[in-house]
Design goal:
This protein is 70% helix and 0% strand. Helix 1 packs antiparallel against helix 2 and helix 2 packs antiparallel against helix 3. The protein is elongated, with a radius of gyration of 17 Å.
Length: 113
């Protein structure tokens, strides 16, 4: 794939994935001491997914929102197995980030009560 879509989405995924490992280890050692870091990581992961979808749409040939032209863009994700990324994985990860936000909010409410 070409254009800004794969570079931005790819590096964002790498950053989110690599930071998840030490963050998970830190939470395992001290579950209550890293809420801010988890929230920041979750926001970054969510924004990475939103940016990837946005750039994918903006680089899709034939899309009315196409801004980045002259390349094959995100055409590859319209065919199997790559079409599983926008149709299955991205929604799953967005739901997972939503669950993490809900759990953080629930933990904050129980800490206040």
């Amino acid at each position: 794939m070409s254009g800004p879509f794969p570079q931005s989405a790819g590096w964002g995924d790498v950053i989110v994935g690599l930071t998840a490992i030490p963050l998970t280890l830190a939470i395992a050692r001290n579950p209550r001491g890293h809420r801010g870091a988890v929230f920041a990581w979750n926001v970054f992961g969510t924004l990475d997914l939103v940016a990837a979808v946005t750039l994918g749409i903006m680089s899709a040939p034939g899309s009315p929102l196409q801004v980045f032209g002259g390349t094959i863009g995100s055409t590859a994700v319209t065919m199997l197995p790559w079409s599983n990324i926008p149709t299955l994985l991205v929604p799953f990860y967005l739901i997972t980030h939503g669950i993490i936000f809900a759990k953080l909010a629930q933990a904050d409410r129980t800490a206040v009560a």
